[in-house]
Amino acid sequence: MIRPLSEYESCYKDIKIIGRGQFGIVYLVQQKSTQKEFAAKKIKGECSNTELDILFRLKHPNIINVYDCFRDENQIILIMDYCQKGDLWNMIQYRILEGKNRGYIQKVVEQWLVQLLMGLAYIHDNNVIHRDLKSSNILIKEDGQLKIADFGVAKILGGEKMAKTIAGSPFYLSPEISQGQDYTFSSDLWSLGCILFEMCTLKRAFEGDQFDKEILIQDQIEPTLTDIRTYSSELVNLIQSLLDVDAQKRPSAKELLRSSYIAKIMLQSFEKKSVKQQDMQKIGQVTMMQKKAHEKYQKQMSYVKQLLGNSQDSINAQSQVL
């Protein structure tokens, strides 16, 4: 629902500035009626109807949720999820400033990868291409849940399923966009590969036109090199497949979710959540909040099963977990 800007101050109280971007300022705000905290993105000028349509259309645990909208002819305010840990880019920069020269451990990278794939698969299922996927547009809640944000240049693809306009950030642009060619959802997967590279190395994958291949595989490195983070060949191969210059060779988000490697990670994660929920039920400690969390889990699991289907990869993954 879009409301007049004049109603904003009667509904929300500004607390502090938590972010600044090219098009606006983000405030931590408190809803006066409930005392709940949200993020309010205040944008000068008009916001395209396409962006608003996309924001209100997409409802998924790994996509930033817009709850309210206020606007006039000079400004628009979007009320969104408040992500306490900020964005992934800043988390990486803090890690570097702390003197840590290693990327995140594989378990963390894998859990974040699954969340990003879940969000991207949902976005693409809705015929939306993000076009500006980068670490600064990945927000993180206090519990580690990732939210894909900033759909300012996103586009709804029609029957042609191709886009032509050059859009996005230089360090994450796919080769086809950089070369002025038509492109589709696979350009978002290239950007995802760049983000994963940053998680593993704390560096951008591409500085100019050079690709820094610095992800080390576990079974090809001496264990004595404790100052260097190493990763499994499965994860490294996945990142390399996303960074294939041939867009047609890049796997889709849904294809990756159906792969035995990702399916195994997903099933292990959901099985652990399910066991915890059963334990809570046994000891009679299921509060209303826990019931809602369980309902949310059931919806997510249903979506996971729908994505995995009955492919041989997903069957193999289940056999490794169960």
Automatic annotation (TrEMBL):
It is an enzyme of class 2 (transferase). InterPro entries: Kinase-like_dom_sf, NEK_Ser/Thr_kinase_NIMA, Prot_kinase_dom, Protein_kinase_ATP_BS, Ser-Thr/Tyr_kinase_cat_dom, Ser/Thr_kinase_AS. It catalyses: L-seryl-[protein] + ATP = O-phospho-L-seryl-[protein] + ADP + H(+); L-threonyl-[protein] + ATP = O-phospho-L-threonyl-[protein] + ADP + H(+). One of its GO terms (cellular component) is nucleus. SUPFAM superfamilies: Protein kinase-like (PK-like). ATP binds at residue 42. It holds the Pfam family Pkinase. This is non-specific serine/threonine protein kinase. It comes from Paramecium tetraurelia.
